[in-house]
Each structure stands twice: as structure tokens, then as C-alpha cells.
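Human:
I keep going back and forth on a fold encoding question. Comparing notes only helps if you start from a blank page. Show me how you would write down a chain together with its backbone fold. Write it directly below this note and I will take it from there.

Assistant:
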Amino acid sequence: MSSTELEEWLKEEQSESSGWSKDDGSGETIGHESGRKIINILNKNPSKDPDKYEEEDLQHMRKVVSYCKRHLAQEEKAKQNTDSKSYKSLKNWGHDPLKA
């Protein structure tokens, strides 16, 4: 997903209805927070120049890839049912299963 697509998705109410809540009492899910981090990473390096990523960016991108890979392997329904929590959660992490 592009940063614009992800930003629009995270504004939707349904983006907040899946995933594990953070422990800070904010009510935000871990995936929703991850989506905000992804937008930040994409926006600060639009040319995707590998030398311009900070170590923290790389660590988060590795976490995102791992999450998406694991959930796509476990949950085929994410590709079939756009109302499923799996689909919504993957979108929060910047991956639209319907585009893959």
C-alpha cells in the first residue's frame, strides 16, 4: 500500500476494530500504531534510498514483513473476506491482501 492509501485506511473506523490493544491504555491496536510508523517511514524517504533509512526504520520494516508473511501463511481467509479481522489487521500493517 502507498502511504496515502494506508493513511486513508487508518482514518476509517474499521481499521480500529482488529488486532491486539497496546498496553498503554490508549485503545489503539499494535497494528494501527505500526501503520502510523510505516507512513512515517515511507514519507521521510519517498525515493526508497537504502542509505537514508535509520536502523529503527529497518527494524520496523523487518517486523512488518515477518508479521505479514506469518499471517498470510496462516490465514487464507484474509484474501477471501474483506470483513475478516485478518484482512483488516494486514491492512493496518500496510499490506492489502487483495493487491498481492
User: Anything to note?
Assistant: The two ends are 10 Å apart (CA to CA).
